[in-house]
Amino acid sequence: MRAKNDPYTLVPTITRAVHEMASDQPVERPATLEDVRGEVLTPNRLNAIVFGGFAALALLISVVGVAGVLAFS
């Protein structure tokens, strides 16, 4: 059961309206703009997380290295 403000409850109505205007127009995969934006940004978000993890690891290695040099001298 979907919530009261769920935009997907309007899909049958919108599909019917599109078919009334142009019966040859298919409505293949209805989605909200938020869903489409999420699909588009997911790879970029994953890349940012992976590169951020590598950057944090590089920072940790450099901090340990500098601390080691300072301790040795």
Overall 3D shape:
rod-shaped
Number of strands: 0
Query: Which range best describes the helical content: under 10%, 10-25%, 25-40%, 40-55%, 55-70% or over 70%?
Result: 55-70%
Q: Gyration radius, to the nearest Å?
A: 25 Å
Give me the number of helical elements: 2
Structural class: mainly alpha
Terminal CA distance: 68 Å
Largest sheet: none
Strand content: under 5%
Unreliable segments of 5+ consecutive residues: none
SSE series: HH
User: What is the arithmetic mean of pLDDT?
Assistant: 90
Model description:
The mean pLDDT is 90. The chain has 73 residues and is mainly alpha-helical. It is built from 2 helices and no strands. Helix content is 70%, strand content 0%. The chain has helices at residues 11-21, 33-72. 0% of the residues are buried. It starts with 10 loop residues before the first helix and ends with a helix. The longest helix has 40 residues, at 33-72.
